[in-house]
Amino acid sequence: MKKIIIIIVCTLVLILGVFIINYQHEKYKKNKEVEAIKSEIIEIKTVKAGNGFEDLMPLKDILKDKKVVAMGEATHGTKEFFQMKHRMLEFLVNEMGYNVFGIEACMSDCMAVNDYVINGNGDAKQVVKGMGFWTWDTKEVVDMVEWMREYNKTHLKKVKFYGFDMQSSSTAASKVKEYLKKVDGSYEIKIDGVLSTFENPKIFDDSSAKVPGDEIKDIIASFENHKDEYINKSSKEEYEIYKQNLKVIYQAYDMLNGDQSYYQQATKRAKYMAENIKWISDFEGEDSKLMVWAHNSHVSKAIDHSSYGDNDTADNIKEMGSNLYDIYKDKLYIIGFQFNEGTVTAVDKSINTGKEEARISEKCILNAAKEESIPYYLSKVKPIYFLDFKSSEKNEYIKEIMSSSQICRYVDANFNGDDQSYKNDILDECYDGLIFIDKTSNSEPNYQVTQ
C-alpha cells in the first residue's frame, strides 16, 4: 500500500513538473513572439486625420504597386477604426495618388454622396444617411465625406465616392426610370411597371412573391442594343452608370429573391461586391487606384468555413476578398483590424427590448481580450501599430502566429455579448497586414440610440 502511495505521489509530481515546464515554455514563447512583433511593426502615432504622414511613410514601399487597398474592421461600430480609415484615405490620396473610395453600401444609394463630394450638391449628413446603413450614419463617416469635399474643391484630380453593395433595388430602379425618360421615353413607359416593382423598398420581404427578375435581364439587353442611341442622347459615362444600376437591380434580385439559405445569399453577395469593385475600377480608368472599406469578414481572402446551421452541405463561403484576389492578385493589399477592449455601437442582441431598431446601442461593452486570444498578446506590443505579414514572415515566431489558427475579435452589426465576440482565423490567410488598436470606443451615430 505504501509503495502504491509513493508511486501515485511520484506520478502526480511528474505530471505537475511537466505542466510547469510546458507552462514556462509557452510563456517564454509568447514573450518571444511579443518581442518579435515589436521589432517588425510600424508604430502609428494617431488614428486621427489631419496629423501629417510621417509615421505612415513606411507604408509607401509596402503599397507602392497596389491598385486596390481593402481595409477591414473587426466591428461595424468602432470610432477608431473609422477614423483610421479616414486617415488612411487621406494618406493614400495625398501621398500615393489614390482617387477612388468604395464602401460596403448599395452602389445606387451612394451616388448622392459622390455628387456631394464632387459637386457640393446636398448636405453631408443627409447624403450619408441616404446610404441606408445605420452603421455608416455616423460623425466619423460624415467627417471623412466632408474632407473629400474640401479636397476636391482645390484639386483637379477628384476623389470619387462609390458603394459596391447591392442589398436594395429601389434607388437604382428610380434612377434608371429617370434616365430612360431622357433617352427613350416610349420604352420607359413600356417597362415602367417592371421598374416600379423594384422601387418598392420591401420588394424582397416576401420570399413567395413573384418578382420580375428575368425582365431586368431583358432591359439590360435592350440597353446594350441601343447603346449608341443612348450615348448620343446623354454620354458614354451616363450610359455605363445606368446600365450598371440595372445590374445592381438584378444582383439584388438574384441574391434576395425567394427562399435562399444564408450560404447562398452570402456567396452571391461576396461575388457581386467583387464584380462591382472591378466595374468601378474599369469605369474610372486604367490609372485609377481604389481604397475599399468593409468588414474584416468581407475583405478576407480566406474561405469562410463557418457553419451557419442552414443544412447546406457546401457552407464554405468564398468571401469578397477572395474574389478580389482572383481578379487583382498581387495588385491587391488587404488590411485587417484587431483590438483589445472598448465599447461598440451595435444591435444589442444580448438583451430583448422589442424592435431591432430600438436595440441599437452605443454602450455594448467589450472587456479586455481573453488571455488565449491573439488580441491579448498584440496588446502587449504597442497601443496602435501596423504589421506587414510578408516583410515580417522571416521571423519564425511571427510566422508561427500568423500562419496558425488564432482566436480573434469579431463583431458585425450585432452584439451577442462579450463572450461571443470572437472568431477563429488564420491571419495571413485572411489579410496581407494588420492594424491593431489597443483601446477603442463606439462610433458616434447621427441618430437617436438606446442607452
From TrEMBL:
<dbReference type="InterPro" id="IPR052036">
    <property type="entry name" value="Hydrolase/PRTase-associated"/>
</dbReference>
<dbReference type="InterPro" id="IPR014622">
    <property type="entry name" value="UCP036794_erythomycin"/>
</dbReference>
<dbReference type="Pfam" id="PF05139">
    <property type="entry name" value="Erythro_esteras"/>
</dbReference>
<keyword id="KW-0812">Transmembrane</keyword>
<feature type="transmembrane region" description="Helical">
    <location>
        <begin position="6"/>
        <end position="23"/>
    </location>
</feature>
<protein>
    <recommendedName>
        <fullName>Erythromycin esterase</fullName>
    </recommendedName>
</protein>
<keyword id="KW-0472">Membrane</keyword>
<keyword id="KW-1133">Transmembrane helix</keyword>
<dbReference type="InterPro" id="IPR007815">
    <property type="entry name" value="Emycin_Estase"/>
</dbReference>
